[in-house]
């Protein structure tokens, strides 16, 4: 039997046998490009057509997520891939930062916009500033940067929160506090003054202005020893100063010889003493302007004289810089204050005050140099924490010993104040205040220098974990501040009614010692005032409007501590002003109260249901009383009272609105704390009461108003001869 080969077909004899045809390769689904162009597509990945045409082929080989399970698996896979890529980038960044720096050659400066330069600037080994704002204060033409610890940064966050919750459009420059920059308070004096410095040096006269007679100067100089000398810095020797002052008077002359130190002291005391008087009793010394700039003619004459001492400074030069900073702080000239402190720091280094005095130096001079150094340290700390800017004075090196407050040191100081008991003297206040600022500055540095691993543009208020870790950094310093309060001698503590605890937040009223001298009572009040004020500033960053900390967490506890200190400061200030004259005209007390009041406004917004909320709201009313008291004497406080009343209306409105939202019978949608930062721009806000709507109706800018309380003056209005002096300086 003959077998036919496989694949052949039968047919008639003599006909060739045809081979069987192979089946054509089928493609399950053409790629998108081939289907669009109706071309044959193979199974390659990518297909041949797309490879030849250099097109992106949809045949990527990735499985199609056709079900929910497959989609979830694909999302998880992509997340893992992103994490792997981020880890590789971070590893490469560390490797770049760890590269050794070449030595032995002088590297050429990098190009301005070089990517390599950007990597160096963004090195992971360098700390980055976070938070802070750029603002244009009080109709200024230039922006100013203020850091996250500043009240202005807090006000900006508060303003954003209010705008989102109230859904109002606030127009700027309406209902702003009266500002010197628009000549409503300080009309710019007229009249040319050519070459004022040469005329001043040769004749002792600057120009027509408000200067004091010898009797008036004597009054304000005597005022200095019982106010700033005892309650701020003991950096002048009273006996030596009075001898110097007497030497300036020439027999038969009506005007004394020029002295920068005397002029600055007189300016400070005019600002303080006149600010303690009602507006209608301030007389011609304010020239019809605000008391905050009383003494400006003496101040600028002293500043003019200081220009000749810059190259050859003395202890008197440093004393002038420190006291000028105090005057500028009282007038809310914050940038000028910062510059004056910078000059003080550089002058202190030039004089070698950062080194402990030589044992061969007389003990009286050694103590004066120490007090001067620590006065510069205190002012640098105060400005840095208030403005949120880096400290000018470096504390990474050893510093001189703290000044002594012993009976012998008080005897050598040049002043004759009686001891206050418990081996304490009038110098003890300055010593314990300096120690308080040392501890507060250490806490501030630890908090703001910590590495938070924030992304560019982020702050601790954008990350709840960063907020919590920041609270952990602060907690050890709370105990250190408590240790400081325990170490303060009883003779410097304010007694409390009902056996209350001094230097605490227990809320008890003060008990004033009836026959204690006014300077000692002021020391006691200001020491406790400083303690609460520094605590408010230190703890305030934990009040967050966006990422609210967990209930009972350390961050929330510190926020509550912040409110407790602000409440106590308000109670102390209101009682002292109502019952005594201790703080009359004390501008720093006004600024501390403004700081506490704005903090309480933010606290009540964030924690409306907290146990402290009602007490905080009552403390805001006390703050309004304080502003009314100060406002009868200087205008910026009167405008602060107006601003605070407007904010109280907003606080009460939101409290009533939130309460109605918690009512199950009310159908209004709730705007929660955590969602307030992401409310759509077009969301309308429905007021539940027409009366509240009318109270909120005026167009005003909370941020501009609140900031303008601190930035309400300008340089040109204060110094009418500024242009001439700058021209003279450029010539020499």
Describe the structure.
The protein is mainly α and 732 residues long. The protein starts with 31 loop residues before the first helix and ends with a helix. The chain has helices at 32-37, 48-53, 68-97, 115-121, 151-166, 196-203, 214-225, 228-231, 238-247, 260-275, 296-306, 315-330, 334-350, 363-387, 407-412, 428-448, 464-487, 518-539, 554-579, 587-606, 613-631, 635-662, 690-695, 702-710, 715-718, 722-731, and strands spanning 133-135, 144-146, 495-496, 510-511. The strands form 2 sheets. A two-stranded antiparallel ribbon has the order 1-2. Among the domains are: 148-169 and 429-451 and 464-712, no CATH class; 188-288 and 291-393, no CATH class.
Give the ordered list of helices and strands: HHHHEEHHHHHHHHHHHHHEEHHHHHHHHH
Largest sheet, strands/sense/barrel: 2 strands, antiparallel
Derived from helix and strand composition plus strand pairing, the structural class reads mainly alpha
Give the terminus-to-terminus CA distance.
130 Å
* Low-confidence residue ranges: 1-18, 96-116, 169-204, 665-700, 713-732
Gyration radius from CA atoms, angstroms:
35 Å
Quote the average pLDDT.
Answer: 79
């Amino acid at each position: 039997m003959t077998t036919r080969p496989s694949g052949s077909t039968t047919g008639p004899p003599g006909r060739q046998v045809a081979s069987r045809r192979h089946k054509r390769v089928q493609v399950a689904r053409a790629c998108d490009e081939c289907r669009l162009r109706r071309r044959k597509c193979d199974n390659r990945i990518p297909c041949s057509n797309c490879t030849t045409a250099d097109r992106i082929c949809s045949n990527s080989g990735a499985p199609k997520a056709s079900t929910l399970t497959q989609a979830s698996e694909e999302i998880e896979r992509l997340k893992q891939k992103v994490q792997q890529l981020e880890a590789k980038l971070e590893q490469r960044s560390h490797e770049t930062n760890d590269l050794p720096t070449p030595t032995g050659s002088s590297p050429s400066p990098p190009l301005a916009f070089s990517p390599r330069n950007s990597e160096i600037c963004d090195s992971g080994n360098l700390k980055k500033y976070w938070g802070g704002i750029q603002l244009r204060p009080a109709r200024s033409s230039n922006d100013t940067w203020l850091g996250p610890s500043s009240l202005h940064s807090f006000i900006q966050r508060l303003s954003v929160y209010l705008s989102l919750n109230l859904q109002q459009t606030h127009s700027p420059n309406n209902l702003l506090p009266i500002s010197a920059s628009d000549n409503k308070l300080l009309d710019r004096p007229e009249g040319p003054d050519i070459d004022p410095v040469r005329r001043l040096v040769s004749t002792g006269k600057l120009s027509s202005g408000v200067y004091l007679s010898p009797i008036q100067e004597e009054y304000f100089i005597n005022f200095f020893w019982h106010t700033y000398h005892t309650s701020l810095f003991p950096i002048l020797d009273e006996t030596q100063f009075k001898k110097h002052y007497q030497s300036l008077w020439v027999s038969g002359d009506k005007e004394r010889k020029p002295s920068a130190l005397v002029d600055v002291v007189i300016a400070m005391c005019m600002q303080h003493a006149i600010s303690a008087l009602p507006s209608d009793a301030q007389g011609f010394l304010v020239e019809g302007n605000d008391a905050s700039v009383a003494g400006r003619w003496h101040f600028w004459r002293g500043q003019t004289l200081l220009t000749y001492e810059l190259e050859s400074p003395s202890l008197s030069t440093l004393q002038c810089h420190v006291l000028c900073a105090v005057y500028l702080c009282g007038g809310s000239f914050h940038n000028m204050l910062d510059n004056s402190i910078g000059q003080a720091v550089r002058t202190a280094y030039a004089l070698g005050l950062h080194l402990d005095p030589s044992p061969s130096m007389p003990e009286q001079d050694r103590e004066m140099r120490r007090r001067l150094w620590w006065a510069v340290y205190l002012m640098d700390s105060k400005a840095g924490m208030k403005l949120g800017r880096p400290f000018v004075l470096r504390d990474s090196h050893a510093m001189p010993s703290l000044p002594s407050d012993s009976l012998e040191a008080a005897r050598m100081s040049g002043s004759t104040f009686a001891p206050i008991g418990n081996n304490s003297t009038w110098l003890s206040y300055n010593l314990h205040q300096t120690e308080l600022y040392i501890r507060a500055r250490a806490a501030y540095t630890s908090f703001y220098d910590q590495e938070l691993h924030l992304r560019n543009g982020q702050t601790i208020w954008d990350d709840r974990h960063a907020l919590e870790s920041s609270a952990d950094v602060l907690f050890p310093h709370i105990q250190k501040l408590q240790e400081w309060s325990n170490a303060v001698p009883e003779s410097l503590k304010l007694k409390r009614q009902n056996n209350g605890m001094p230097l605490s937040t227990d809320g008890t009223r003060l008990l004033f010692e009836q026959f204690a001298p006014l300077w000692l009572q002021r020391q006691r009040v200001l020491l406790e005032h400083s303690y609460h004020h520094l605590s408010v500033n230190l703890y305030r960053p934990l009040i967050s409007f966006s990422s609210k900390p967990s209930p009972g967490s350390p961050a929330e506890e510190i926020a509550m501590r912040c409110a407790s200190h602000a409440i106590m400061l308000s109670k102390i200030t209101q009682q002292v002003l109502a019952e005594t004259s201790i703080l009359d005209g004390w501008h720093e007390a006004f600024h501390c109260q403004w700081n506490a009041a704005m903090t309480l406004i933010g606290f009540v917004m964030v924690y409306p249901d907290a146990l402290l909320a009602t007490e905080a709201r009552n403390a805001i009313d006390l703050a309004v009383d304080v502003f009314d008291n100060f406002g009868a004497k200087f205008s910026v406080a009167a405008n602060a009272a107006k601003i605070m009343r407007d904010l109280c209306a907003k606080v009460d409105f939101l409290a009533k609105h939130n309460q109605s939202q918690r009512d199950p019978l009310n159908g209004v949608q709730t705007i929660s704390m955590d969602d307030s930062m992401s409310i759509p721009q077009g969301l309308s806000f429905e007021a539940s009461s027409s009366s509240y709507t009318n109270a909120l109706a005026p167009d005003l800018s909370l941020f501009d108003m609140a900031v303008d309380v601190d930035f309400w003056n300008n340089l040109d209005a204060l110094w009418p001869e500024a242009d001439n002096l700058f021209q003279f300086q450029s010539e020499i």
